[in-house]
């Protein structure tokens, strides 16, 4: 991971496409996380958001993905209030998005699910439930079943399993499983990772009854 971090750091000044810079900084951050460098990971993701702001503009709805990713990092290290601020900003900016844009539907649903997790962890159960329902309403608007819908349904199922409604969790994880491609490309690590998560949670919920 140290060598990979150096590789991505060296690629940054050579990159001519500003749209790629946030992704490169996130990859640096992921390497830092694997190396146990909390500060380095957080700073890399903050820089990724800064580069996205410079590229898209401060009021762009396309910043939602970057704010969601940064919120996840803050949540990973227990900085829930900071994570909540980024999620709230992502939801505010999403109001400017085209209503049926795939990117909008996916990232805004994710923002609602992150807001739900924060609310549940703070004991605000009704608010968390409302956020999950808003996320699911957007998820079902995705044109076709696929890995994007499967990933969102997995996130919702995980929340329901963790915070008390295991029957609903089983329904959601079954729906997520049904959305997975029948013959995924083994080289597509992102898709394969989501499928593994769904399969594992589905097995756990089946075993617990």
Secondary structure topology:
Layout: H1 2-11, H2 21-34, H3 38-56, H4 64-76, H5 80-94, H6 102-121, H7 125-139, H8 147-162, H9 166-179, H10 189-208
Helix pairs in contact: 1-2, 2-3, 3-4, 4-5, 4-6, 5-6, 6-7, 6-8, 7-8, 8-9, 8-10, 9-10
Structural class: mainly alpha
* Uncertain residue segments: none
Biggest sheet descriptor: none
- β-sheet strand percentage: under 5%
Helical percentage: over 70%
Q: How would you spell out the order of helices and strands? A: HHHHHHHHHH
The total of beta strands comes to: 0
**Oligomeric organization of the protein chains:** single chain
Distance between the termini: 40 Å
Mean pLDDT: 86
Shape: globular
Q: Can you count the helices?
A: 10
Gyration radius over CA: 17 Å
Give the key terms.
75% helix; 209 residues; mainly alpha
Summarize the structure.
Helix content is 75%, strand content 0%.
Structural commentary:
With 209 residues, this protein is mainly alpha-helical. 75% of the residues lie in helices and 0% in strands. The chain has ten helices and no strands. It is globular and about 50 Å long. The model has no long low-confidence stretch (mean pLDDT 86).
């Amino acid at each position: 991971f140290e060598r990979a971090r150096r590789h991505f750091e060296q690629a940054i000044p050579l990159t001519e496409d500003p749209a790629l810079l946030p992704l490169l900084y996130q990859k640096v951050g992921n390497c830092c996380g694997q190396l146990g460098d909390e500060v380095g990971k957080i700073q890399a993701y903050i820089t990724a958001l800064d580069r996205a702001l410079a590229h898209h503009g401060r009021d762009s709805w396309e910043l939602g993905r970057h704010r969601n990713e940064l919120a996840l990092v803050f949540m990973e290290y227990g900085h829930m209030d900071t994570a909540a601020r980024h999620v709230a900003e992502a939801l505010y900016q999403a109001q400017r998005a085209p209503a049926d844009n795939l990117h909008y539907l996916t990232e805004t649903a994710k923002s609602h699910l992150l807001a739900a997790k924060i609310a549940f962890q703070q004991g605000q159960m009704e608010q968390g439930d409302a956020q999950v329902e808003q996320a699911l309403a957007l998820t079902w608007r995705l044109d076709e079943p696929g890995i994007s819908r499967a990933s969102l349904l997995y996130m919702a199922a995980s929340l329901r399993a963790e915070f008390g409604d295991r029957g609903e969790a089983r329904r959601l994880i079954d729906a997520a499983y049904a959305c997975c491609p029948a013959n995924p490309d083994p080289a597509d690590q992102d898709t394969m990772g989501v499928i593994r998560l769904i399969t594992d949670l589905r097995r756990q919920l089946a075993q617990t009854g």
